[in-house]
Design a protein that fits this description.
Helix content: 25-40%
CATH topology of the largest domain: FAD/NAD(P)-binding domain
Structural class: alpha+beta
Largest sheet: 6 strands, mixed
Order of helices and strands: EHEEHHEEHEEHEEEHEHHEEHEEHEEHHH
Number of helices: 13
Radius of gyration: 22 Å
Number of domains: 2
Shape: globular
């Protein structure tokens, strides 16, 4: 049996390789790192998490991304198995020790007799064979040129920013305190999963002033600041209004300062554990394009971080993705060269989980093709199906932008109340329908 070839061993490519091997089909996983590096990646490991260590909500009843977790677990997903194995306390979210997670994914893939990992850059797209392109938002320049030449269109692009990481022992815990918002979590560790730094109104106002005045990274010629709204740099949010951050990552709700329970903070900066040892914390929602010197000055204005030492400062990079509604069919194949499938963020999904889910689906479809079969996508009543339906035809191609999974992508339920008040009944109905339909789809394979 001819192997399936995958370009890119990120979350999508790693998940695709695992699914193909589970189907009994050999697979060659091509990864250019570490021989060809990117500025954002630090290792040559598979499934390296660059921007954050969070897979977001793990609630599979009331949250669409939690439902996507459920579907991937039901499909025997490697990414979710390793995430569960290396999870960190994070309230209702699924956060992982990113180094241990990627190392475990790498070791598992290398140990599988049906998976061969080859290091080295693929610069051209073959016109024969069974291939999955899962190169992600940091596709190499040479391969991106090949993709543009093949599709006859310029890849769209937006900018994605990286949040800074702080050494835990440099946080002043006489000012900060441990608590998840609304004390969310089933264990004490989960209820204390975040470190909170409170701000008074004058401190917040001074912080916003400094944020707006700070030196920023300049764009290169030909680049445009087309940010994805789910990952805006904090200074861009501040430019949209001085109160924007108080209603976003710095909202003070659901938190009580254990040092002064009677005093309500005007704003709160949260830090989330980044490794199992608890020695590193990332500043939640603080993606930034400030220059390094400005970052240390501005972030040390945060109460509790006056003497913070940074393991990593924030950064910004260009993310490329296809105009998938015009280029891909519902089997995730390139319409004008169907031996090529695309998966992951390059297809226009946003987020670790969404990227891995598209890898899972592309892997199963490629494995079916290798066996002379055809696998239809799951119904778009499911989280996986809703995503692939959106990127391969449900979205408006003219205004196509990266999309997280959300219940707005799901077909409505008859006689269910709309609006915010109807969510407590509508969301569980969505998720139950999705679980039934996804289980039925799995049973056909």
């Amino acid at each position: 049996m001819e192997p399936v070839n995958i370009i890119g061993a990120g979350l999508a490519g790693s998940e695709a390789a695992w699914q193909i091997a589970r189907a009994g089909v050999p697979v060659i996983l091509h990864e250019m790192r570490p021989s060809v590096e990117t500025f954002a990646h630090k290792t040559g490991d598979c499934a390296e998490m660059v921007c954050s260590n969070s897979f977001r909500s793990d609630d599979d009843v009331m949250n669409a991304v939690g439902l996507l977790h459920w579907e991937m677990r039901a499909a025997g997903g490697l990414i979710m198995e390793m995430a569960d194995r290396h999870r960190l306390p994070a309230g209702g979210a699924l956060a992982v020790d990113r180094d241990a997670f990627s190392q475990a994914v790498t070791q598992t893939l290398r140990a599988d007799p049906l998976i061969e990992i080859r290091n080295g850059e693929i610069a051209d797209l073959p016109d024969t064979g069974n291939w999955i392109v899962a190169t992600g938002p940091l596709t190499s320049d040479r391969l991106a040129t090949a993709i543009r030449g093949l599709t006859g269109t310029e890849a769209l692009a937006f900018f994605d920013a990286i949040a800074p990481i702080v050494h835990a022992d440099t946080i002043d815990m006489s000012v900060a305190w441990e608590q998840s918002r609304y004390d969310k979590g089933e264990t004490e560790a989960e209820r204390r999963a975040y470190i909170n730094c409170p701000m008074t109104k004058p401190q917040y106002e001074a912080f916003i002033d400094a944020l707006l005045a700070a030196d920023k990274t300049e764009f290169h010629e030909g680049e445009t600041a087309g940010y994805f709204d789910g990952c805006l740099p904090i200074e861009v949010m501040a430019e949209r209004g001085r109160e924007t951050l108080r209603h976003g990552p710095m909202k003070p709700v659901g938190l009580t300062n254990t040092h002064n329970p009677e005093e309500k903070a005007y704003a709160v900066v949260q830090l989330r554990r980044d490794n199992a040892l608890g020695t590193l914390y990332n500043i939640v929602g603080f993606q930034t394009k400030m220059k390094y010197g400005a970052q240390t000055q501005v972030f040390r204005m945060i109460p509790g971080l006056e003497n913070a030492s940074f393991a990593r400062l924030g950064g910004i990079h260009r993310n490329s993705f296809l105009n998938s509604p015009t280029l891909l069919d519902d089997r995730m194949r390139l319409r004008n060269q169907p031996n090529l499938r695309f998966a992951g963020q390059v297809t226009g999904v946003e987020g670790y989980v969404e990227s891995a889910a598209m890898g899972l689906l592309a892997g199963r479809m490629a494995a079916a093709q290798a066996k002379g079969q055809d696998l239809a996508p799951p119904p778009f009543t499911t989280a996986t199906g809703a995503l692939v339906n959106h990127i391969t035809g449900g979205a408006e191609a003219r205004t196509f932008q990266p999309m997280n999974v959300n219940f707005g992508l799901f077909p409505p339920l008859d006689q269910m109340k709309g609006g915010r008040k109807g969510r407590k009944d509508r969301y569980p109905a969505y998720t139950q329908r999705a679980k039934d339909d996804f289980s039925a789809w799995l049973a056909t394979q």
